[in-house]
From TrEMBL:
Protein name in UniProt: Aminotransferase
Assigned keywords, A-Z: Aminotransferase, Pyridoxal phosphate, Transferase
InterPro entries associated with the record: Aminotransferase_I/II_large (IPR004839), Kynurenine-oxoglutarate_AT (IPR051326), PyrdxlP-dep_Trfase (IPR015424), PyrdxlP-dep_Trfase_major (IPR015421), PyrdxlP-dep_Trfase_small (IPR015422)
UniProt KW Transferase keyword: yes
Domain Aminotransferase class I/classII large: 36-400
Length: 404
């Protein structure tokens, strides 16, 4: 018996017990305490386009979206999402039956898994994985089966044989992410074609997280490794739930406007879960994002070019500081290997110890990629830096990293 009168049973249920605290909270607190530059958490330090902010203000003033919007999302936004998928990818979706607006991509992921996964079903996810995947699979009672991306020739690569071997009769769903956070890998047409073939062969559902679809960079030779939605491959539209987010595309992460495009049956299933999570969210912001999605191509190009310059600035700085840099093809994250810094400076290649010491040593905060792995040892030497920050902030970080 303890003298305290609080409940004696562990409070957090078994499904969530392993997700008690996140590294982001610890590292962001460390950044505040030490005055370090926070390249840990991936949010932009400038807001998206002024005219989109104004559109939100206008919607709010005009009383559009201040009360519960329709469950599937406001028609203006659903129409704009469908037009965006058609214009960019030639994918045609019916705004009324095949588009669902969610409270960010996070809710789209959670609702998809809660709707489609039976307890005991296996869900294959690329490792390292975005942190909400593991928790959402757990909430749905699924078993996560990670397939590890490994560095090869400067890029983190998916081993297609390993993916094939990971599929069992209990596999229900592939949870993909391209462009991939945290490695910056953009799956190629060939890789996606193989994944599509496998999904059709083994009758799998696929949930693809494509929130970085507009953050794909031009290569040295001037070619852009285009983002290709998995839903464009033969047999895939029928079994794929595609997820997008205005937070990443337009730099309004606080607005929490995300969406799902899929078949009427899959959208209805996801909506069944979604309606009991938030029911609806972000009313006035939905109208603003409808306008954002219709911005001219030049907007998307300029965002991409701006980010590419930032990627190159931080990549060069990290390389000069002694890191091995996996230059990302997409997203706004750079994954590095700390081992080339040497045994003592890299804390024996232990990314956790390295990131805990980095604010004091160099005044910069980064995230140890190990938190994105089940196989922690696989991720141990990798550390992630975000470059969605103002150029002068990145230049300052690069300067500070010279202290290493
Ligand atoms: C940021 C992020 C999300 C979450 O997006 P929200 O729209 O903010 O909920 C989902 N997936 C990946 C890979 C992300 O990086």
């Amino acid at each position: 018996m303890t003298p305290s009168s609080g409940p004696s049973r562990p409070l957090l249920n078994r499904r969530l017990a392993e997700f008690g605290t996140t590294i982001f909270a610890e590292m962001s607190a460390l950044a505040v305490r030490t005055g370090a530059i926070n390249l840990g958490q991936g949010f932009p330090d400038t807001d998206g386009p002024e005219e989109v902010r104004e559109a939100a203000v206008r919607a709010l003033r005009d009383g559009r979206g201040n009360q519960y919007p329709p469950g599937p999302g406001v028609p203006e936004l659903r129409t704009a999402i469908a037009a965006h998928q058609l214009r960019n990818y030639g994918l045609s979706y019916d705004p009324d039956r095949e588009v669902l607006v969610t409270a960010g991509a996070t809710e789209a992921i959670a609702a998809s898994l809660l709707a489609l996964v039976e307890p005991g079903d296996e869900v294959i996810a690329l490792e390292p994985y975005y942190d909400s995947y593991a928790a959402s699979i757990a909430l749905a009672g699924g078993t996560r089966v990670p397939v590890t991306l490994r560095p090869r020739e400067g890029r983190f690569v998916l081993d297609l044989d390993e993916l094939r071997d990971a599929v069992t009769p209990r596999t229900r769903l592939l949870l993909l992410n391209t462009p991939h956070n945290p490695t910056g890998t953009v799956l190629s047409r060939e890789e996606l074609a193989e994944i599509a073939k496998l999904a059709v062969e083994r009758d799998l559902l696929v949930v693809t997280d494509e929130v970085y679809e507009h953050q794909v960079f031009t290569d040295e030779n001037g070619t852009t490794p285009a983002h290709i939605p998995l839903a464009t491959f033969p047999g895939m539209r029928e079994r794929t739930v595609t997820i997008g987010s205005a937070g990443k595309t337009f730099s309004f992460t606080g607005w929490k406007v995300g969406w799902v495009t899929s078949t009427p049956e899959l959208v209805t299933a996801v909506r069944s879960a979604k309606q009991y999570l938030t029911f609806v969210a972000s009313g006035p912001f939905q109208y603003a994002i409808a306008e954002a999605l219709a911005l001219p191509e030049s907007y998307f190009t300029s965002v991409r070019e701006d980010l590419r310059a930032k990627r190159d600035l931080l990549s060069a700085g990290l390389t000069a500081a002694g890191f091995e840099v996996y230059r990302p093809q997409g997203t706004y994250f750079i994954t590095t290997d700390i081992r080339p810094l040497g045994d003592s400076r890299s804390h024996g290649g232990d990314g956790f110890a390295f990131c805990r010491a980095l604010p004091e040593r160099a005044g910069v905060v980064a995230i140890p990629n190990a938190v994105f792995y089940d196989h922690r040892e696989e991720g141990a030497p990798f550390v992630r830096f975000a470059f969605c920050k103002r150029t002068e902030v990145l230049a300052d970080a690069v300067d500070r990293l010279k202290a290493l």
